[in-house]
Amino acid sequence: MAERFFAEYVGLVNATVYMNDLINNKGVVKSTITTTPVNEKYLVVTYYNDIPVLTLASGAVVEYEYGSDVPNWDTLTDVTDGDHSTGFTYDYVRSSLDMDTIGVYTVPVTVTDASGNASLPLAIEITIVDTTVPVITDAVGDTSYVTGTTEPNWATGVTALDGYDGNITANIVITETAVDMVTVGTFNVTYDVDDASGNSATTVTRTITITAT
User: By the 8 A CB rule, do 143 and 158 touch?
Assistant: First the structure.
């Protein structure tokens, strides 16, 4: 917990209600309250009160896959409050975090206790990552050709899609193991691709069989 000094500008007609609320609902010790008249209508009420203090919890997970839900701030943080042990409400600056876009975000998080006392912001660094591998699809598959057939375009029918980057077919790397269209035998054509985050797709292999007739 932390003791914090407060000063509020209060109308005289509301002063009694205001101070009773401090004492009865917000845990303010009566002896810490002072009042200073400003004019015939207003006074300044000053007091000290405990406010909750947020700290990052030990072992808190601060890295999330893109598209994840907003973190549960209560599991990421520890709260110290001399007046309360439950009934906390968490809030954060929503514009500071985008769970759908990879990157590193500094997110101000606050907690309010059951008496309405708010903590100072705790800046939590949240990292959004893409660890999902892209997927290569070969619509053609294993194929047989008669010797002397013109060598086809091995890229035909092969696509690569990534959940974050979208269509990355243009990035596919095709490896031909010396397919010989005039020699009877079996050959392999392999397809690989990485997304922008460095995630590698499972290699797809198309088996090419060259026959005499």
Answer: no
